[in-house]
Amino acid sequence: MAIQGGAMNTSQAFRKLHERNELFVMPNAWCEGSARLIQQLGYASLATPHA
What we know:
Elements: H1 7-19, H2 32-40
């Protein structure tokens, strides 16, 4: 599931991931390149680090 669109659509899609009866993996992207790779690999969501 590629998430595109406004913040409301993103929020709703993320909530739906949590409502499913299965686990999902949320990899952590450190830079734009790793975020693009995660998207190309088909992950439904990604995490970002905070300093």
